[in-house]
Amino acid sequence: SVTIPGSVTTINSDAFYDCDNLTTVTLNKGLISNLPVGSEQTLTATVTPEEFSASVVWSSDNEEVAVVSKEGVVTGVAPGEAVITAKVGESSATCKVVVTAVRPTSIELNMAELDLEVDATFQLEYELKPAFATADDVQWSSTDPEVVTVENGLLTAVSVGEAVITVKCND
């Protein structure tokens, strides 16, 4: 119990110095089940007493998968799982985050047209769209392998002629 003299009309947060065990923290979510890489979601911590809300410390147990800002904004970095913690003194609350891969919607090549001499090679490169998209099933093909072969984007001119090179993923 606490005795407060009758002359005291207000008590500010300084009166609660070293009372961290009296603080509680809750989050608006316990699970973010599908956060695409590069996307953000904001967690909101509710702290009791409210005076301690400014002292929330955010952390991620796996920053290779998800990071969290000092404002509680969670960003997906790579596919996987992480646990975000909001802590005030000795009290804390957690949210499990499942970060998912972003599937590409298109592929852009670094060359639209190319002339090669017989026996010459050229390495084609591609960029997946949107940003942060990933694909592990990239497939290359040539409309005429007797003219140009392609292996992992490396073109080899075999004979005189024309061929169209195609790269695709996510069949």
Model description:
Helices cover 0% and strands 43% of the residues. By secondary structure, the chain is an all-beta fold. A hairpin with a 2-residue loop joins strand 14 (148-151) and strand 15. It starts with 23 loop residues before the first strand and ends with a strand.
Q: Low-confidence stretches at least 5 residues in length (pLDDT < 50)? A: none
Give the helix proportion (percent range): under 10%
Number of strands: 16
Strand order of the largest sheet: 2-9-8-5
As a percent range, the share of strand residues is 35-45%
Major sheet details: 4 strands, mixed
Termini separation (Å)? Answer: 69 Å
Q: Helix count? A: 0
Average residue pLDDT: 89
Shape: rod-shaped
Helix/strand-derived category reads mainly beta
Succession of helices and strands: EEEEEEEEEEEEEEEE
Radius of gyration: 28 Å
